[in-house]
Fold each of these.
Amino acid sequence: MKRFIHVTFLLFMILSTISCDKSTIDGEWDDNIHLSEKNITISAEATTVLITTEGSSWWIAGILFYDDSDYDISDTDTTQEDFVIATEDFSIERKNAKEIHVSMTQNNTGSERTLTVSLKAGNYFDGFKVHQSAD
């Protein structure tokens, strides 16, 4: 009986060691958004760009624009498959869960403007930047 307990314990220890995979860190997620583009440069003219995703379970975590203004998006449910966030300088529209249409008005500021959009899906964070040239 003692031998059976020792063999069982040894087998348990071997199986426990083999089953442990330390190649990934707890909480680390693979890219489940798959953005088509992450850095886009456009002219100073009013322009609309299309960014696609392979994943559809993402939402917008935050938006920064130009002079690091952080836009309040709490009134918009960005987990929905269709929504629009519109300001006087830009708009972001999500269509059919996998398309993001970003429109920027003409840049008359004399300096480059950057729109940074942070996305989240589960514990995975990603995002894209739209750089608009100066006029």
Note: DSSP finds one helix and nine strands in the chain.
Amino acid sequence: MAIGMIGVPLGHQMPPVLDELSDLCIAAGEPSLAALVVNSETGAPGKGFADGGVPWHRSVQEVFRYWAKQ
């Protein structure tokens, strides 16, 4: 696992953390970095990921475009 927490069940802990991360990004006028967090088996975000109806891959592209300019 990329964050080095193998064996730690994160299913219930990650959603609130990612929600907070998303809120902080949006408050700063940045795209949500939570879009970059994906399931290692599926390569897709968890069931709780929502970005106002924007398809997930668009959210990822927005993050990369934004940070490429920084």
Note: The first helix runs from residue 14 to 27.
Amino acid sequence: MTELYDSLSVLYKSLPSGTDSEWREALKSVLYGGELLADEASCYGKQQNDRNRGKRKEYARRHGNGERVTEFSAIMVAEPRPEDKQYVPSGAVLPVAPESGEVLPVGVAGDEADRAIALLSEFPAEPEADRPGEGTDVLLDPERVRQVRKRVTGGEEMSILFVSDTHIGYENRAITGSGKTVSWIDEISSVDTIKRIVEIAIDRDVDAVIHTGDILDHEVDADTLDTVAIWFEVLSAAGIPMYCIVGSHDHTSYEPDHPESVNGIAWLKEQVKNGRLTELSTSPTPVAGGPVDAYGISAGSVGIDDVGKFQSREWKPSDIAFGAASPGPNILCLHDGLTPYRRSDADVELDQLLAQSRVSFDCVLIGDEHRPKNRDFENGYSFKAGDGTSVFYTGPAMRISEPYRNRDAFVTEISISDTGVTTTRHPV
């Protein structure tokens, strides 16, 4: 807390007379309070007084020259830009934006202000201190930052391959006798399906893959998982990250019945540990380091690490608290029966979940259903929530339900930016 406050103070006091007024106001808001500070946020100056037991001057004496901190261990700092050194005291360093890795600028002209404010917004609303804060997640006014980041990024578009219900190991049902099967099960290969998905992702040069659950079937053997892991590694080596939530069949794979089946959850944990998978949660996950944040609620609101710990997998919208998002587009991923796809047998009221959310979602990606709504293969994969939020399903990635007897399964490429969401289907 002290290091960040002190280094920003040096920056603010170094601003030349001709610097952009909005950049000056942004720094002032963060340090001392002002119109660009988010409504619930507290300025760093107040937090320095309220949350740190020691005084700033004491810290500066121990870790600096008595006037300012010169030894930094809690934040990243760097020398000023060459064009800014004339304004900054000799030997002083400035804070580095934690996400972009850029040192904050000093002399900022009007056309540079948006970029500077976007960098400043990367700093936490409540830096680490001796005492806890109030739980605020947003530092600068979100709408203002959204506007400047949109201008900085030019409405950057991201492409995401949306995948669901791969049911890796489904063909084992013919051996284990566990679970219903389609009559064409001998035509199905989950390994070939994963291979095809990886090929599509690489060929389309997507930024990321998002899987909305039932990655695994409820019985899967070690050889199949070993081969799939190789294809996951191919995807990772191509620089395409995969994000996921887990579904009901993933949960069941935790304790398989057949002697040749293995613990699927243990395998998923290994993929996460090795960096081949990233599990989504109610906290924002930046997709491929870009402007899009993804959130996820696994089936029953029970994630990979908690499978086996809970008897009940039921949840209500009021149980969910989403972490504050950055100003870019936001995606929510779900794997439960929900409205508006279902009616009386829905597990979750999507409209209630969206209404109580502190995050505004640009679209919702769902799993679990295995068929288009109303068996409408043209229009049954996309619909609207009550508030107009777009909801998408991509169907199972393998032909594992009767509606796909004579139809190809597919995955969906989603292009998302501040201007909207578009979709393109790719047969598997």
Note: The chain is about 25% helix and 15% strand.
